[in-house]
TrEMBL record:
This is Thiamine-binding protein domain-containing protein. Belongs to the UPF0045 family. Residues 7-93 form the Thiamine-binding protein domain. InterPro entries: MTH1187/YkoF-like, Thiamine_BP, UPF0045_domain.
Length: 100
């Protein structure tokens, strides 16, 4: 499968008064454990890799939210697939090495 970039904002519903941060931390930990290159942003996290692998990571993230007690999860995803050159965070960001 082609090299892809997948950005995800995961929004688990929590029980009354429960913070969402532990859920988001767990989702990011799943990405980290996968070994794919990733970059955490203020509103979403972007991963780079094989499309099938990235979609499997999304499935694992959603499953973890339910395991933690979330009754429902909204995952907003942006996907870029480039079968010719391969999608690349480095190439897209080379003009902005400092993020500015």
């Amino acid at each position: 499968m082609a090299q892809a970039l997948l950005s995800i904002q995961i929004l688990p519903k929590t029980n009354a008064g429960e913070e969402v941060y532990p859920y988001v931390d767990r989702a990011i930990e799943i990405i980290k454990q996968s070994g794919v290159p990733y970059r955490v942003g203020p509103l979403e996290t972007t991963m780079e890799g094989d499309l099938d692998q990235l979609l499997d990571i999304v499935k694992q993230m959603n499953a973890a939210m339910f395991e933690m007690g979330s009754p429902s999860v909204l995952s907003q995803i942006k996907l870029s697939v480039d079968s010719k050159e391969g999608a690349s965070m480095a190439r897209l960001l080379q003009k902005y090495p400092d993020g500015k």
